[in-house]
Amino acid sequence: MKAARLHAYGDLADIEIENIEKPEPGPDEVLIRVVSVSVNPLDRKLVQGILDDFFPLSFPYTLGTDFAGIVERSGPLATRWHPGDQVIARANPVQGGAFAEYAVVPATHIASAPANLTLEEASALPTVAGTAWQALMEVANLRSGQTVLIHAGAGGVGSIAVQLARIAGARVIATASSSGIDLVRQLGADHVINYQVEDFSDRLQDVDVVLDTVGGDTQQKSFAVLRPGGFLASIVSPPNKALAKAHDVTASYVFHETVGTRLHLIAGLCEAGSLQVIIDRKFPLVETGAAMAYLAEGHTKGKVLLVP
Ligand SMILES: NC(=O)c1ccc[n+]([C@@H]2O[C@H](COP(=O)([O-])OP(=O)(O)OC[C@H]3O[C@@H](n4cnc5c(N)ncnc54)[C@H](OP(=O)(O)O)[C@@H]3O)[C@@H](O)[C@H]2O)c1
C-alpha cells in the first residue's frame, strides 16, 4: 500500500511516499481502509521532532492521525467493529499511520461515521472536534448564558468550537481576518472581531471563557478580557501562572486525548444537523508535503484533506 513516511526528524521535504506492507491489526485493534485523511498542525510538529518529549517517534514512521474509512477486519477483542462499517478514527500520534491506504487503530479510538456526511467530510472531525469539545465542555466547563471568546474562529479547531459553544447556549465572540468573518458568523458567532484591524483586548471585558488557539501575544492579551474567576483554556502553550493569578482567573493548557465516546457524541451532533464541517482544500496523498505546507501558511478555513 502507499504511505507517507518519514525516516528521521526533519521537515516536509523529508516525507517520502513509499509502497509498504499493509499493517496487521493486534487483538484489540481494527484494520481500516482509509478513504480520507485530514491534516493537523500537529503532523508537522511531529515531523520536526519538536514534540519528542510527548510523542517520541520510531522510524520509519507513517504520518497522520485523523481519518475516515471502511473497516476491513477486526482483532478478536475488537468485535464491536465489523467489515464494511463506515468509521471515523484517530490514531495515537506516536503510532501515526493514517496517511496511507490502510491504517490500524485501537477499537477504542473509533466511532461510527455520521450517516449524513461523506467520509471525506467526516475525516475532518477527530482531532479538531475532540479538542474543541475537551477544552470547552470538559476543561473550561462552558455553560449556557456565559460569554466565550474563541480565537481563530475560522480555523480547524475554531470552526468547530464556535459551533459547539453556540449549541451549549453561550454568547460567542470570535476572532478572524476579513476573509473569515462571514464564515464565522454563519457558524454561529454573535460577534466577530477582525484581528488584523482591531485589538480584541481593547474591545472586550468580563468574558467568562477564552479558548486560545493562537498562543503568543494573543494568549497574553486574553487574560485582561476575562472576568475575575474566568477561565483561559489554551491548546497552544501552557499559560503563564503569574498572569493568571494577577488577573484572578484559572488558566489551563489542554492536551487533547482521543476518547471514542467523545467522537461518538460529535458524530451524533453532525447527524442531528447541529455541526457542520468546513473543508478548505483537498490534496491527493502523493502530495502530502504540499498539503502540510499549505496548512502551515496558517490561513486555512476549516480543514485540509488528503485522499489516498
Ligand atoms: N493541545 C492540543 O491538544 C491541540 C489540539 C489541536 C490543535 N492544537 C494546536 O492549536 C493550534 C490551532 O490548530 P488548528 O488546527 O485550529 O489550526 P489552523 O486550522 O491551521 O488555524 C488556521 C486559522 O488560524 C487563524 N489565525 C491565524 N492567526 C490568527 C490570529 N492572530 N488571530 C486569530 N486567528 C488567527 C487563520 O485565520 P485567517 O486566515 O483569517 O488569518 C486560520 O483560519 C495549532 O497550534 C495546533 O497545533 C493543539
Automatic annotation (TrEMBL):
PROSITE patterns on file: QOR_ZETA_CRYSTAL
Gene3D superfamilies linked to this entry: Medium-chain alcohol dehydrogenases, catalytic domain (3.90.180.10), NAD(P)-binding Rossmann-like Domain (3.40.50.720)
Domain of life: Bacteria
SMART domains: PKS_ER
Gene Ontology molecular function: oxidoreductase activity; zinc ion binding
Keywords: Oxidoreductase
CDD domains: MDR_like_2 (cd05289)
Enoyl reductase (ER) domain: residues covered: 10-306
PANTHER family, per database record: ALCOHOL DEHYDROGENASE RELATED (PTHR11695), RETICULON-4-INTERACTING PROTEIN 1, MITOCHONDRIAL (PTHR11695:SF294)
Protein name from the UniProt record: NADPH:quinone reductase
Gene source species: Dictyobacter aurantiacus
